[in-house]
Structure to design on (152 residues):
């Protein structure tokens, strides 16, 4: 974890920002709960346990800054709630998600599935792709198995 904190610190310094204690607490929560796709409010409640003096506005500002610097990705799974996800180290693109419409679980796909699509878009439409987001909505394995076990 310390390696990733140092990396964030360097990324901030490269843009003339400091890793303040409040920013560090926010990044630590994101690292500790990396698989959870937390909302700003959830992050705030977890950060508050580490830094009781922190305010919700500070967490929001920190998340927006980290998002602008492409340290964190701001995502929405269609439920009206913005969630935050640390960008994987060395990742050129945002990773993909599988969202279960039954239980709400979110699974990540780290493989870049759209390399060929990007090349096609660039060659056919002359559009320079900088990033992309792909979210599949469906029913996860666990919900499918539960449905088979308990038929109507």
């Amino acid at each position: 974890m310390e390696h990733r904190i140092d990396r964030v610190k360097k990324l901030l310094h490269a843009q003339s920002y400091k890793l303040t204690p409040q920013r560090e607490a926010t990044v630590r929560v994101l690292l500790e709960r990396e698989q959870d796709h937390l909302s700003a409010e959830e992050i705030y409640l977890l950060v508050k346990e580490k830094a009781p003096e922190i305010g919700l506005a500070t967490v929001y500002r920190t998340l927006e800054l980290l998002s602008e610097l492409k340290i964190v990705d701001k995502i929405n799974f269609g439920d009206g709630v913005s969630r935050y996800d640390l960008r994987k180290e060395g990742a050129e693109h945002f990773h993909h998600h599988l969202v279960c419409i039954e239980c709400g679980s979110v699974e990540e796909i780290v493989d870049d599935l759209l390399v060929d699509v990007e090349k096609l878009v660039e060659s056919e439409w002359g559009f320079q792709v900088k990033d992309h987001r792909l979210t599949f909505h469906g029913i996860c394995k666990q919900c499918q198995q539960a449905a088979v076990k308990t038929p109507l």
